[in-house]
């Protein structure tokens, strides 16, 4: 088994790929019986410090509908200078530049270690990156001030040649012109009127009346010049923009008692999208939306301005009582799609104590690969640090962001692509490798990722289409090629090609092999993504039921048991953790809306479907570390039994970072022992989790909510809600007094869950 | 009233009275036929067009006329030379005698009629014979109609008769020609008649005619014959006939050399004027000029006086000549010949004594005139002769006179114009007889008379007392009725019943200028505060407490003077009554003792029951290419910097509370945030013009002082920012919408100053297209051009009014901008429109800036509602002006400034009583410029009369004209222009006919009898008819007409008066402290050696004669040469000499009087610009086909006669 783990790890490190199965069943029928589909988590831009890009363009299969890229799996005839495509078996001659190849002189893309390779494309003009700030001015003074400072600070982080623009909104929407001296000039739009892109461009003066006869040539420079008024290179308008931001006032329109400020978020976004759409289609651009409350007027309105009508809750939604929901969602979806078509991504930075309408707006980011950051205030480090981290740089000094990504998946004949789940939109490319069976965003083998970063990970689902009666030749391998074209942050166009292959296995004869090739972590995440994807459109209980059913079927398939004897149930090591993941997944905020606002759910789901496997697993099942005098820090069970008085616990649930001081520790701390020199060790103990937490805080994006609490503290709920409630008020006495802390919940514990699972799995009637 | 029996012998006004005219044309038949109809006079004249001033009886005296005859002969000769017509006026001579008798008479009357002490006084001191006479006559007439007059007049009658006899004979001759001839005879009468004739002042014309006739008889035959035959014969004749007189021989020779000359006279009346002018000018100038200058001053007064004296036409002529130089022209009236004759003598005479001298001369002239006139009038030949004979004289007088004549000549042909603009001068050649302009009522005379009698403050305490004319400077003492500066009525004696009103057709209207600025020596209305419960009002009709409320029951209740309802006096307002029933505190409380005062309004009088916010001014500036290029933008921005310190305020000590905002626009709008805390202004562009909104609230409307730096920075930058603009399209509707929305957002009233250049063709609500189409002029579709093109602006206006958003529009068009449509909002919101066509910074800057300054600074009230309450029996039924009405009673004014007047028409819905009179109370609720809610109350009481004569005795023509003009101008948007004109003439004719029928003593139908107080109605009405709106010339754009139309709509009486009858001031001699007497608006009155200043309220001209003395030129222009005067100068050079100083003072004082700055235009005689100037010589025939005064009068007479028959 260790071999498989190593293999998996190696594959992930090299190619950024984790497959649910690392041996593929050779027939469709068998594949479906495996319950968990053949699928993978793919991180297109996985950081590969040891992978220098090559400076030439890929060699592609000459078959029009294939165009697979030459890769190490291809058979090459060095003499004839011909290579055979391993996907369509087309034989292709090498291009002239490859004349010198031989067995000993192979190009990089033929070497096995370059199963992932990156090409730099020299074609085409390099367009500067664009950052368009869309700023809500209906903020508290303090918030606005903090936001202004953050924005001013961000100017220094931007690439000097990047273009920046500023749109502010409140009751009105203002597009600021950045070039004017002496007078600050802006174009104003009414916040209640839905404008078409053409209207917006006309009103901004971006459309020059097309004089027949001389459009093509002169228009281009004019257009560029015109749009320049709103989007200027950072280095040129640095000062201007800093001043402009400094003078930014709160929205001056009075907000009567009992009303919410009027926020025209919908129109503001529409203007932003329209502006970029007209001026810079298909150029890497980020619209960064900063909001401090829900849209309250105009298209995209989420809630009315009457304070007495609260913003929709899950309860309202379930009762179909959210009157703006559908309309707003539709509006933002349309915007998101427009934006996605042009390759522009939209970030949402929502900082408010109440909901801000992320539920309706989430698609803006989900479809365009933008970030969503949710905080309580712009004046928190959570926002400030996170925002700063957007502009973080990698080991090469390049921004960890890429634009205009285009992921294409090619498969060998036995496989077809069912779909993908992640921050992408379908490009509706119907190829021969596209399955009719859709999972996630399907019906295509190409997706657009308007913005992606090194951790952006897609779940890609496949279908084995090989018929049962057409056995795969012995030793045959299935191959999949991921071709990712994108605009690097240094404005280069690049193509990264990852080609992987897995062996086929006959499910009937080699089921153990297949079972041992199971990657339960990947599988858990992939199934979770499917579940989350379903949850977007289905009722919560249905999704849970589906998940349970899948789990039971998997257990039935791979468990070893005697019929109707739950106690005989056993799972092999490669599946042992899977039920636990499912247990926690069921309890997670991705599927449970109880105790979460619709916005929060949207926020959690947004991140869940884009993070890589490790982070996703943390989200599903938070990590719990325990610190004590008894030994070095150790991971402990995410269980109420781990909550002990003399321990400090550090829980990382991705979104929250909780440091929990046990009862005794808390008392000590209160007594101030850590201040006493003789209790230096206690001080160190207290410090240890803080340091570890700091480490996580430094790297995590978005920065998690940092919670320092103790036994009995109100914030301890973050921990208590996550741990397995093995001890509750119901079974407290049954379980011995001295260990753990009881959780006041009626939720089932993992033990109960497993009992039921076993029972159902072994049931002959199921 | 004055009986103005102006009898003018009109030659053959074919157009006028077809029947008569035709008959008369044939000498033989004519005389007979005419005879039947009219009084002897009329018959004599052959034409009914005489204006018989007198009452029928007056004729008796005519006999006296003969005596003068002897003198007249000389006259005649003179007259021959020149033309003729003026004989009419001569009657002046008679005037002198009248005074005595007449005065006594009049006074008696006056006293009788009513409590007008002031009037009598004025009259009492007859400054000059003429005035006296005229006044007398007037008096008589007024009295005349009523019974009392009868007796008084008796004498005059006697005098007249003689005249009639006179006239009788001449008429025949007259008709054909030779009024001149006749004139001669007429002249005689003057001398003899003088006394009698004067009484008849009005009559004079008749006498004049008669004289003519009489004179004619002798010459007439010859003339006739000659006339009938071809002209050449006539020419010969004239000499022959003339030869009779000593001068003739000379004349003859001269005449030949001056063929043009001779032709000219006729031409004057008819078409050919041009030729004549030169001739005239050439010949006469030497003498005439010399004589004229001195005469000039006198003349002006004289002419006026003369006309009345009609009888001594000759004299009149002479008198007039000197001053006006017109005498000759009057050809129609035949005076010209006389003039020519008289001029020489007169010229000298006038200087000495205006009235008498003039009169006297007439006598002698008369005879001369007779001979002369016939020739010129009817037959060209005669004239030559005349001229030849009198060349010298005529030259002087005529030279000037003639140039105008051409215009006159037109008139006749023009007559048709009445009906239809296009005159068809078919018969032009034959009939050219005219009334002597001096014989017909002279506005100048009336104005001067009124000035002369208004020495004491006008007290308003007496009910039904007509105030002095608007042209008179007077002080007002409020003693219970509103000052005439606030309210002027058409009639101060209202008919008791609607039948009377209908019969008389006199419009019952009041021109109300609620916020009029008072001169510094009159106290502004007191402010009354009745406490929390607000003003005390009648329970039923809601009239406000005023002097007409009668306190009863010991002061515990009061009875409403308007509706008679009895209302409890609230305890806090109770006061005891004295023995007369007056409250003891009557004189302590303005509302009980004054005609005008203000109440502080309580919250109940406010919108939404909330005290108003201080108003705001928003400046919206077009920054399209044209605006920038013309310099308009930079001028405005520069000016605003200082102008903002001068925003209106209630208390001069305190800074204005008005907030300001700025917007610029072309195809899109730019708002500016000028909040005081900003380092630099912010510009907010709104391109969504289809759905305008205000992009900001805080920082848009700011206090000037707080945001001064930011504002100045903004104003500095605006011109720079748009210096390179290439945007030529503009929007307009959204601009107003923007201002409106801004005020809405700020929840205040206010004013928008829109500076706009071009037709808004950019895609936006209110987009317009060019619809100016000359082809539509004169068709039924013409009216649509005065209607707004699109409905958007109507709706916008409605919204503006609801918000109290007043819009002032400054236009700088280079082409058609559709004022009719753009003006909808300003007009509906009580705003003003200013138009600077082809604006150029250099030349128009001053005018624009002065207008702007004044417009920004003037006192203005916002969000106003005006309501006029009246006594039971009448009701305010119609309103004219710039405002909006949602219902039939409330006049809503988003803004109401101190220059806006509203004309209100009243109709009967019941009977009025003579005892109580008619009361009206105008209440204006408004927000002052400091944001205070106030009520301004104006009370007015007028008499009621059961006799038509009383009505006609107490009317104010200027006000009537104001009403007519507004009524007519409003009508052009709904009716064909021709119909409007016809209606006007018709109503005027009915008014006068009613008077003639019911008030004047019976007389020949050939007499035109005008009520004293309406004697100027025809001349003024003619001016209205000739205005560009009703009778556009070829060069008058549709925009100009629409612009004038709205402008007139909110003018007060003084403004309409000067607009329709411009003030023409000779400024050859200027004394400090007083202004020279104006002259009549006719080219004849201009001396070639003179310099005249003309103001119309909109324009200011300085006309410079071609042969002005060098010294004068040096004084004025600093150059001795006429040719070096720069006609493009925009202001007079500042020269260090008393004359220059004084002249500039005068110019400045003129400007100060008007609400709009008048740009000075220097017009050199015979320069191209003179055309423009001539347009305002409203007594002349206008280039666009408008009739001359004389022609119109004749036409009016005809109309009246038709009504009477």
From TrEMBL, chain A:
A Pfam match: Gelsolin
Signal peptide range: none
Residue ranges of domain Sec23/Sec24 helical in the record: 519-617
Chain ranges of the Gelsolin-like domain: 633-719
Sec23/Sec24 trunk domain mapped to chain residues: 127-391
KW Transit peptide (keyword) present: no
Domain Sec23/Sec24 beta-sandwich: 402-505
GO CC terms of this entry: COPII vesicle coat; cytosol; endoplasmic reticulum exit site; endoplasmic reticulum membrane
Ranges that cross the membrane: none
InterPro entries: ADF-H/Gelsolin-like_dom_sf, Beta-sandwich_Sec23_24, Gelsolin-like_dom, Gelsolin-like_dom_sf, Sec23, Sec23/24_helical_dom, Sec23/24_helical_dom_sf, Sec23/24_trunk_dom
Keywords: Cytoplasm, Cytoplasmic vesicle, Endoplasmic reticulum, ER-Golgi transport, Membrane, Metal-binding, Protein transport, Transport, Zinc
CDD domains, per the entry: Sec23-like, Sec23_C
Ranges where the Zinc finger Sec23/Sec24-type domain occurs: 58-98
UniProt cross-references to PANTHER family, sorted A to Z: PROTEIN TRANSPORT PROTEIN SEC23, PROTEIN TRANSPORT PROTEIN SEC23B
Listed name of the protein: Protein transport protein SEC23
Organism field: Xiphophorus maculatus
Lineage: Eukaryota, Metazoa, Chordata, Craniata, Vertebrata
TrEMBL record, chain B:
Membrane topology: Peripheral membrane protein
Protein's cellular compartments: Cytoplasm, Cytosol; Cytoplasmic vesicle, COPII-coated vesicle membrane; Endoplasmic reticulum membrane
Residue ranges with Pro residues bias: 88-99, 169-193, 295-314, 324-348, 373-383
Biased composition (Low complexity): 214-227, 234-255, 404-421
Gene3D superfamilies in the record: beta-sandwich domain of Sec23/24, Sec23/Sec24 helical domain, Severin, von Willebrand factor, type A domain, Zn-finger domain of Sec23/24
Residue span(s) of domain Gelsolin-like: 1075-1145
Domain Sec23/Sec24 helical intervals: 957-1056
Protein name: SEC24 homolog C, COPII coat complex component
């Amino acid at each position: 088994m260790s071999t498989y783990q190593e293999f998996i790890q190696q594959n992930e490190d090299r190619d950024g790929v984790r497959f649910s199965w690392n041996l593929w069943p050779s027939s469709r029928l068998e594949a479906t019986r495996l319950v968990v589909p053949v699928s993978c988590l793919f991180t297109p831009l996985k950081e590969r410090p040891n992978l220098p890009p090559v400076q030439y363009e890929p060699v592609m299969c000459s078959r029009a509908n294939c165009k697979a890229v030459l890769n190490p799996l291809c058979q090459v005839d060095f003499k004839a200078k011909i290579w055979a495509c391993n996907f369509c078996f087309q034989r292709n001659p090498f291009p002239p530049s490859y004349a010198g190849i031989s067995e000993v002189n192979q190009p990089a893309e033929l070497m096995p270690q370059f199963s992932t390779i990156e090409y730099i494309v020299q074609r085409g003009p390099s367009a500067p990156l664009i950052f368009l700030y869309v700023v809500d001015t209906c903020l508290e003074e303090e918030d606005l001030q903090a936001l202004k400072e953050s924005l001013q600070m961000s100017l220094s982080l931007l690439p000097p040649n990047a273009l920046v623009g500023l749109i502010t909104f409140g009751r009105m929407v203002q597009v600021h012109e950045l070039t004017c001296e002496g007078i600050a000039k802006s174009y104003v739009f009414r916040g209640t009127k839905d404008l078409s892109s053409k209207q917006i461009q006309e009103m901004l003066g971006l459309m020059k009346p097309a004089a027949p006869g001389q459009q093509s040539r002169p228009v281009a420079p004019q257009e560029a010049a015109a749009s320049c008024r709103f989007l200027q290179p950072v280095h040129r308008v640095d000062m201007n923009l800093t001043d402009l931001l400094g003078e930014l006032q709160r929205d001056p329109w009075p907000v009567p008692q009992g009303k919410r400020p009027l926020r025209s978020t919908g129109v503001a976004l529409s203007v932003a999208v329209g502006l970029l759409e007209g001026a810079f289609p298909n150029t890497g651009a980020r619209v960064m939306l900063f909001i401090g409350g829900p849209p309250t007027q105009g298209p995209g309105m989420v809630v009315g301005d009457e304070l007495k009508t609260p913003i929709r809750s899950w309860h309202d939604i379930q009762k179909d009582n959210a009157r703006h929901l559908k309309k707003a969602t539709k509006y933002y979806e349309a915007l998101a799609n427009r934006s996605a078509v042009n390759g522009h991504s939209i970030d949402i930075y929502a900082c408010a104590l109440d909901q801000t309408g992320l539920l309706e707006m989430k698609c803006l980011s989900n479809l365009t690969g933008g970030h969503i950051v949710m905080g309580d205030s712009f004046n928190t480090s959570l926002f400030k640090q996170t925002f700063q981290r957007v502009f973080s740089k990698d080991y090469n000094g390049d921004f960890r962001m890429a634009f205009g990504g285009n992921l294409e998946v090619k498969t060998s004949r036995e496989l077809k692509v069912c779909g993908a789940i992640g921050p992408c939109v379908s490009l509706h490319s119907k190829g021969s490798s596209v399955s009719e069976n859709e999972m996630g965003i399907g019906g295509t083998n190409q997706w657009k990722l308007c913005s992606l970063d090194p951790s952006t990970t897609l779940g890609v689902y496949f279908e084995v289409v090989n018929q049962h009666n057409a056995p795969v030749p012995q030793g045959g391998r299935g191959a999949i090629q991921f071709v990712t074209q994108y605009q690097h942050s240094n404005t280069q166009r690049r193509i990264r090609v990852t080609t992987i292959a897995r062996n086929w296995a006959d499910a009937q004869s080699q089921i153990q092999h297949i079972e041992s090739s199971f990657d339960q972590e990947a599988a858990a995440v992939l199934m979770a993504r499917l579940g989350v994807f379903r949850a977007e459109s289905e009722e919560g209980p249905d999704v849970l039921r589906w998940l349970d059913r899948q789990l039971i079927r998997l257990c039935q398939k791979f468990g070893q048991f005697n019929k109707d004897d739950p106690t005989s149930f056993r799972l092999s090591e490669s599946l042992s953790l899977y039920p636990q993941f499912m247990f926690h997944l069921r309890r997670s905020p991705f599927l449970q809306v109880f105790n979460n606002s619709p916005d929060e759910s949207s926020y959690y789901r947004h991140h869940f479907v884009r993070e890589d496997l490790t982070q996703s697993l943390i989200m599903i099942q938070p990590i719990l570390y325990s610190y004590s005098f008894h030994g070095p820090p150790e991971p402990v069970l995410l269980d109420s039994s781990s909550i002990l008085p003399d321990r400090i616990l550090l829980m990382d649930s991705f979104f929250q970072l909780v440091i929990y001081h046990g009862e005794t520790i808390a008392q000590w701390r209160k007594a101030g022992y850590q201040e006493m020199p003789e209790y230096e060790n206690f001080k160190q103990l207290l410090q240890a989790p803080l340091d570890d937490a700091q480490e996580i805080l430094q790297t995590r994006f978005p920065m998690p909510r940092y919670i320092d609490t103790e036994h009995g503290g109100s914030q301890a709920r973050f921990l208590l809600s996550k741990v397995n409630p093995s001890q509750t008020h119901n079974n407290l006495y049954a379980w011995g007094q001295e260990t753990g802390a009881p959780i006041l919940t009626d939720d089932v514990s993992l033990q109960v869950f497993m009992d039921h699972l076993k029972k159902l799995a072994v049931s002959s009637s199921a | 009233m004055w009986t103005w029996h102006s009898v003018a012998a009109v030659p053959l006004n074919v157009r006028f009275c077809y029947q008569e005219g035709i008959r008369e044309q044939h000498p033989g038949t004519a005389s007979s036929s005419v005879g039947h109809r009219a009084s002897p006079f009329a018959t004599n004249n052959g034409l009914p067009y005489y204006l018989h001033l007198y009452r029928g009886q007056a004729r008796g005296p005519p006999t006296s006329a003969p005596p003068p005859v002897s003198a007249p002969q000389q006259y005649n000769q003179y007259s021959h030379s020149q033309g003729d017509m003026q004989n009419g006026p001569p009657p002046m001579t008679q005037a002198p005698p009248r005074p005595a008798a007449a005065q006594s008479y009049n006074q008696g009357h006056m006293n009788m009629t009513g409590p007008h002490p002031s009037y009598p006084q004025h009259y009492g001191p007859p400054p000059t014979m003429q005035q006296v006479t005229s006044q007398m006559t007037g008096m008589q007439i007024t009295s005349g109609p009523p019974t009392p007059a009868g007796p008084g007049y008796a004498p005059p009658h006697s005098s007249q008769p003689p005249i009639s006899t006179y006239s009788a004979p001449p008429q025949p001759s007259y008709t054909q020609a030779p009024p001149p001839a006749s004139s001669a005879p007429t002249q005689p009468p003057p001398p003899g008649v003088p006394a009698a004739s004067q009484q008849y002042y009005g009559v004079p014309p008749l006498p004049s005619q008669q004289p003519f006739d009489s004179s004619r008889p002798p010459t007439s035959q010859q003339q006739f014959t000659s006339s009938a035959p071809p002209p050449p014969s006539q020419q010969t004749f004239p000499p022959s006939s003339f030869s009779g007189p000593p001068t003739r021989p000379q004349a003859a020779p001269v005449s030949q050399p001056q063929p043009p000359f001779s032709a000219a006279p006729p031409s004057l009346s008819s078409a050919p004027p041009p030729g004549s002018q030169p001739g005239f000018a050439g010949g006469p100038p030497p003498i005439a000029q010399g004589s004229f200058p001195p005469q000039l001053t006198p003349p002006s007064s004289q002419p006026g006086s003369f006309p009345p004296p009609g009888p001594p036409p000759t004299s009149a002529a002479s008198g007039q000549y000197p001053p006006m130089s017109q005498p000759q022209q009057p050809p129609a009236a035949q005076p010209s010949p006389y003039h020519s004759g008289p001029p020489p003598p007169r010229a000298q005479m006038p200087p000495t004594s205006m009235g008498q001298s003039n009169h006297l001369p007439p006598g002698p002239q008369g005879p001369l005139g007779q001979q002369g006139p016939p020739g010129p009038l009817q037959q060209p030949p005669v004239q030559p002769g005349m001229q030849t004979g009198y060349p010298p004289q005529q030259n002087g007088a005529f030279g000037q006179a003639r140039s105008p004549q051409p215009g006159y000549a037109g008139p006749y042909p023009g007559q048709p114009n009445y009906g239809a603009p296009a005159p068809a001068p078919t018969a032009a050649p034959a009939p050219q007889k005219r009334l002597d302009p001096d014989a017909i009522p002279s506005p100048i005379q009336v104005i001067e008379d009124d000035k002369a009698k208004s020495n004491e403050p006008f007290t308003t305490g007496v009910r039904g007392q007509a105030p002095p004319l608007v042209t008179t400077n007077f002080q007002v003492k409020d003693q219970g009725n509103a000052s005439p500066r606030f309210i002027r009525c058409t009639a101060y004696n209202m008919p008791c019943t609607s039948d009377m009103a209908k019969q008389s057709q006199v419009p019952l209207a009041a021109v109300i200028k609620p916020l009029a600025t008072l001169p510094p020596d009159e106290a502004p209305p007191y402010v009354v505060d009745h406490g929390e419960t607000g003003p005390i009002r009648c329970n039923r009709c809601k009239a406000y407490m005023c002097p007409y409320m009668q306190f009863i029951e010991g002061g515990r209740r009061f009875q409403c003077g308007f509706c008679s309802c009895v209302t409890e006096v609230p305890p806090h307002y109770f006061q005891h009554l004295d023995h007369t029933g007056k409250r003891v505190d009557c004189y302590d409380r303005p509302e009980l003792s004054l005609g005008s005062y203000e109440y502080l309004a309580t919250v109940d009088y406010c919108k939404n029951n909330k005290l108003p916010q201080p108003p705001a001014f928003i400046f919206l500036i077009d920054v399209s290419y044209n605006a920038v290029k013309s310099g308009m933008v930079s001028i405005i921005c520069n000016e605003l910097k200082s102008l903002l310190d001068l925003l209106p305020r209630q208390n001069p000590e305190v800074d204005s509370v008005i907030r300001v905002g700025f917007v610029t626009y072309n195809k899109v709008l730019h708002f500016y945030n000028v909040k005081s805390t900003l380092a630099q202004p912010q510009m907010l562009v709104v391109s969504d013009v289809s759905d305008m909104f205000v992009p900001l609230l805080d920082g848009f409307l700011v206090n000037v002082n707080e945001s001064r730096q930011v504002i100045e920075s903004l104003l500095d930058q605006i011109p720079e920012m748009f210096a390179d603009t290439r945007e030529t399209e503009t929007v307009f509707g959204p601009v107003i919408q923007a201002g409106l929305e801004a005020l809405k957002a700020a929840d205040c009233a206010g004013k928008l100053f829109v500076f706009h250049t071009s037709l808004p063709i950019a895609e936006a609500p209110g987009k317009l297209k060019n619809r100016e189409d000359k082809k539509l002029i004169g068709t039924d579709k013409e009216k649509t051009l005065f209607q707004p093109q699109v409905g958007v602006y109507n709706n916008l206006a409605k919204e503006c009014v609801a918000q109290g958003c007043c819009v002032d529009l400054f236009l700088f068009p280079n082409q058609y901008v559709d004022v009719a449509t753009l003006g909808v909002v300003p007009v509906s919101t009580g705003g003003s429109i200013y138009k600077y066509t082809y604006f150029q910074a250099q030349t128009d800057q001053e005018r624009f800036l002065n207008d702007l300054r004044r417009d920004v600074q003037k006192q203005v009230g916002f969000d106003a509602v005006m309501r006029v309450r009246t006594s039971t029996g009448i009701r305010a039924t119609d309103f004219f002006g710039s405002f909006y009405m949602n219902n039939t009673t409330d006049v809503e004014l988003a803004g109401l400034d101190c220059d806006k007047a509203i004309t209100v028409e009243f109709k009967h819905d019941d009977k009025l009583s003579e005892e109580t009179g008619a009361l009206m109370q105008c209440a204006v609720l408004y927000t002052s410029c400091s944001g205070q809610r106030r009520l301004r109350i104006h009370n007015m009481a007028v008499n009621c009369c059961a006799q038509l004569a009383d009505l006609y005795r107490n009317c104010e023509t200027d006000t009537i004209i104001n009403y007519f003009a507004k009524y007519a101008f409003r009508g052009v948007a709904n009716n064909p222009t021709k119909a409007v004109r016809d209606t006007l003439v018709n109503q005027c004719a009915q008014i006068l006919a009613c008077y003639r029928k019911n008030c004047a003593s019976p007389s020949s139908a050939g007499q035109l009898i005008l009520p004293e107080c309406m004697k100027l109605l025809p001349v003024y009405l003619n001016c209205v008819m000739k205005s560009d709106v009703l009778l556009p010339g070829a060069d008058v754009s549709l925009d100009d007409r629409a612009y004038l139309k709205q402008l007139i709509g909110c003018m007060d009486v003084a403004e309409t008066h000067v607009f329709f009858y411009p003030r023409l001031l000779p400024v050859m001699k200027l004394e400090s402290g007083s202004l020279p007497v104006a002259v009549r608006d006719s080219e004849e009155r201009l001396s070639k050696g003179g310099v005249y200043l003309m103001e119309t309220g909109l324009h200011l001209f300085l006309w410079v004669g071609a042969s002005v003395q060098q010294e004068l030129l040096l004084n004025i222009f600093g150059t001795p040469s006429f040719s070096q005067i720069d006609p493009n100068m925009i202001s007079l050079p500042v020269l260090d000499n008393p004359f220059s100083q004084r002249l500039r003072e005068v110019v400045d004082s003129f400007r100060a009087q008007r609400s709009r700055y008048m740009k000075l235009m220097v017009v050199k005689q015979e320069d191209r610009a003179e055309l423009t100037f001539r347009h305002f010589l409203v007594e002349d025939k206008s280039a666009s086909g408008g009739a001359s005064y004389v022609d119109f009068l004749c036409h009016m007479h005809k109309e009246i006669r038709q009504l009477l028959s």
